[in-house]
Amino acid sequence: MSMKIKLNKFTKKNREKNAEMRAETISDKSKFAIVESYKAARTNIMFSLSADDKKLFAVTSYSKGEGKSTVSANLAISFSKMEKRVLLVDADLRRPNIHNIFKLENNAGLSNIIGKMGDFDEVVHRDVLPNLDILPSGTIPPNPSELLCSARFIDFVNRVNEEYDYVIFDTPPVGVVADALLLKDLVAGFVIVLRERNTTHGDIQNLLESARLADCKLLGFVKVGCDTGKKRGRRYYYYQYY
Length: 242
Ligand SMILES: Nc1ncnc2c1ncn2[C@@H]1O[C@H](COP(=O)(O)OP(=O)(O)OP(=O)(O)O)[C@@H](O)[C@H]1O
Ligand SMILES: [Mg+2]
Description:
This protein is of the alpha/beta class. It has helices spanning about 10-15, 20, 30-50, 70-80, 100, 110-115, 120-125, 145-150, 150-165, 200-215, and strands at about 5, 55-60, 85-90, 125-130, 130-135, 165-170, 190-195, 220-230, 235-240.
């Protein structure tokens, strides 16, 4: 099953320059195939979560720029369409991007809550879309790993676990920093993003090894694909879930 979507020309230069402009979020106007592929991913994640009483999961990848933030954002939108209360948390306290994707202010967010400089109710963006609340990263702290290990972070997670039906965490790449794996006891598991022609076999092996050593549960893989064959001058992207 392959899902394809038309996006702007994809070059490394453009990617770095215009990251927030081209992150494509699904909407009623999106192509049927792309919306359906996220629905399929959602269904599979829901099955994986059904064995667990926690409805929290994290999205990560091995390397940077593989599409974690885009996939987190779109999964959050897809889950919110089921009339469930969803919170998307930008737990990438190093290269946060969720606020760009949804065009939100990032003056305050997760780091401010953990650093006791803000209260969840004051900093969360309520109803960004129906049923979808978003917590941006907040001010980039000097010590992200310590914040994600802190008792304040655990308190925050327990609170949002009570308040929401699903909580989705966007995280940094595990091949670069270990932040994502710090969430392992707090979430039901991890969704791994792989990017076609970018994620290598070695990356996947390293990631599986890190997950095994840290005793992390993997809920599944989302493949972000790039069909380099041009069709009427455009490139097509697609997503698959395993
Ligand atoms: N399906 C797609 N088609 C085309 N471009 C995409 C797709 N998914 C993501 N991108 C682009 O790739 C870039 C990286 O995506 P994104 O920010 O989601 O990755 P990331 O893994 O979160 O990166 P980082 O490691 O920096 O956090 C962005 O410019 C985004 O717009
Ligand atoms: Mg990101």
